[in-house]
Amino acid sequence: MATATAVTPRPTTHRAAKARNVTVTDPALVRRAVKAAALGNAMEWFDFGVYSYIAVTLGKVFFPSGNPTAQLLSTFGAFAAAFLVRPLGGMVFGPLGDRIGRQKVLALTMIMMAAGTFAIGLIPSYSVIGVGAPILLLAARLVQGFSTGGEYAGASTFIAEYAPDKKRGFFGSWLEFGTLAGYIGGAGLVTLMTALLSSDDLLSWGWRIPFLIAGPMGIIGLYLRMRLEETPAFAAQLEKAEARPKVPLRDMVAGQWKALLICMGLVLVFNVTDYMLLSYMPSYLTSELKYDETHGLLVVLGVMALMMIVQPFAGALTDRIGRRPVIAAGCAGFLLLSIPALLLIRQGSLLAVGLGMAALGLLLVCFTAAMPAALPALFPTRVRYGSLSIGFNVSVSLFGGTTPLVVTALIGATGNMMMPAYYMMAAAVVGGFAVWRMSESAGRPLPGSAPSVEGS
Fold first, then answer.
1. What is residue 126's predicted lDDT score, i.e. its pLDDT?
2. In 3-state terms, what secondary structure has residue 452?
């Protein structure tokens, strides 16, 4: 048995061995890779969580208006703008990750995400610099969106290529565990500030605190990512090539069009339901249902904690019974239960809201547990980062990140408070079709990679 050597600009030694074209992973190295990827994802979604939960305050700071709905729409408009540049980030960082390596690109996206979030905390309010405030907010959001274009696809690819085949679902589920941890950190901090600070203090300076925290978090995440080696799959791919691989963008799209369409369908149902529950519902409870802001945030916080508990077990379940049955169950659940769950939420009592949100949260776990392992398995190693970045970010930009804005606008235009349920049901139909067309990947090697087994 020979030790595999990672091919990078400077020699590094992988603690993953190859024998007869089988990669034997080092459990300690896999766990370290998972932690670094999950922490970066947590930082990203800490920001998105904070932005969503404090949207009403941000609307008053950056978009003064006598109409609270117009303020909320403007704030979510800036939120959605970041998603419009995500495909551009994916087209830059994805192919770059397939050429120079996953680890280097993930370190770069970490720097940009932290800088963009930190910058928001330094922007003067509209009352100080006028129209320059929303312009600077939009610029910071565009930096975040561009960097995020390479984050999720890279992190899920990184974990998938490190993990042994029979545990890819379990290890991949920790990526979304990091997402939920980031959301909980953001929601918890906003809830604490809402409870401890007066409305005037929150409006004048308190809202800046969560964004300024991104600086130290980014430094920690960057340190962890810089200490990692390249994945065994990418190192093996690089060994086969005489020079660094350069795959044309058209090969990542036209050459993978069937997998890309499946990817976009899966990402659509995953992200519409994700952003509906974790980003939009706090504002829905406050602005549309006139629910107490603090109690609404606490309910969402409790639902996310429940999801975190279930997440690793659901990930392990996808290794045993497959990704397709779990994702299909989530699609069927949203199709059948979205209306009953939202009717419960609209009852307004704490118990009813909690039960409705918990039902949606447990259905969402079907996606958060399965997608980090299912999506990278759609593409071969040589184009995995690039193709996944493009498919993921196009779908998120068109459907996921725009969910709060679109649903708010639909409610305003129709007056129908059940629009969130109808939107999730439509997404479930699209996701169900994508599941029907996808192949099962649980327990199997990634396309273009050698079988991977867990070492002792």
1. 81
2. strand
